[in-house]
Amino acid sequence: MNIADLRKSYEKAELSESASHADPLQQFSKWLKEAISSEVPEPNAMTLATVGSDLRPSTRVVLIKGYDERGIVWYTNYASRKGQELAGNPFAALQFHWVELERVVRIEGVVEKVSDAESDEYFHSRPLDSRIGAWASPQSEVIEGRTVLVTNAAKYGAQFLLQPPRPPHWGGYRLKPDNWQFWQGRRSRLHDRLRYTAQADGDWLRERLAP
Question: pTM, whole model, 2 decimals?
Answer without folding.
Answer: 0.94
